[in-house]
Amino acid sequence: MAGPGVLIRPPDESEIEQLAKIWHDGWHEAHAHLMPPGLTSARNLANFAERLPPLFPDTRVAGSRGAPFGFCILKGDELYQLYVAAEARGKGMAAALVVDAEQRLAARGVATGWLACAIGNMRAARFYEKCGWRHVRNAVLDLKTPSAVFAVEVWRYEKRLDG
Fold first, then answer.
1. pLDDT tens digit string along 29-75?
2. What is the pTM of this model?
3. Residues 6+ apart with CB under 8 A from 82
4. At 14, is the secondary structure helix, strand, or coil?
5. I need a surface site. Which of 59, 62, 87, 153 has the fewest CB within 10 A?
6. Where does residue 149 fall: left (phi above 0), alpha (psi -120 to 50 degrees), or beta otherwise?
7. How many Cα atoms are found within 13 Å in the side-chain-facing hemisphere of 2?
């Protein structure tokens, strides 16, 4: 458990389709209008479903088994992905997932974690700042799809995790 009443747990292979839908829907809601059209069209439901299984070792899910409402993925010292289904927002799941991610990063010995936030995604930026993350600079990430790589400028947020 992380957060009041929010179960945080490892994902189950049987939940790939549900988690892919949460990721797809959340990504398109928050990013489609901010990203290059080629990247947006490549980010279809099948793409998210294909990307999930290799990320499972570093993924935690909010919600009971078979009924996930959100997830968080770490990648090295990065809080890599964080998504909560629209119907579950405002119920503490995202905050619980961030707390869990920060604890996992700290347990890995990460002194300062980081995350990328799409420039213009004000809802996410406000949320991360409320959680104690700070915008430190802009950065360019190479976002890969099966057919291309897109250089996208993002806001880089960081947070000290070692007290």
1. 999 999 999 999 999 999 999 999 999 999 999 999 999 999 999 99
2. 0.94
3. 70, 71, 72, 73, 94, 97, 98, 101, 115
4. helix
5. 87
6. beta
7. 21
